[in-house]
Amino acid sequence: MIVCHCQSISDHDIRAAVDWMRAADPQTLITPGKVYRALGKRADCGGCMPLFLDTLHKAPAFRLPDAPAPLRQTG
Ligand code: FES
Predict the structure, then answer these.
(1) Which numbered atom of ligand 1 lies nearest the CA of 43?
(2) Which residues, in sequence order, are CB contacts of 29 under 8 Å at separation 6+?
(3) What's the 71 CA to ligand 1 centre distance in angstroms?
(4) Which of 67, 63, 49 has the alpha carbon at shortest distance from 19?
(5) What are the Cα distances from residue 58, in Å, to 6, 13, 52, 64, 75?
């Protein structure tokens, strides 16, 4: 499904970019701007942002891995 018509970006493209960024850096924060850059494109009209964000948030690799538990309690 095409998500961004200005740049012909599909839901598959977004998930692939998220997978690539997560594999390259497991702690990275993934933003729409980073996805556009990873795909070598730039947003134009912004009309796709609601669907773009929904697709991004539903990508399995979007979430950061859980932070490790603290070694000891303070306070
Ligand atoms: S539809 Fe995505 S920038 Fe216009």
Answers:
(1) 3
(2) 64
(3) 45
(4) 63
(5) 22, 13, 10, 13, 37
Q: Which of 4, 9, 37 to mutate to test the pocket of ligand 1 (most atoms within 8 A of CB)?
A: 4
Q: What is the pLDDT of residues 4-48, one digit of tens each?
A: 999 999 999 999 999 999 999 999 999 999 999 999 999 999 999
Residue reference for tokens 């494109």: 41
CB proximity list for 28: less than 8 A, separation 6 or greater: 21, 22, 34
Sole residue written with tokens 């701007």: 33
Give residue-wise pLDDT tens across range 20-32.
Answer: 999 999 999 999 9
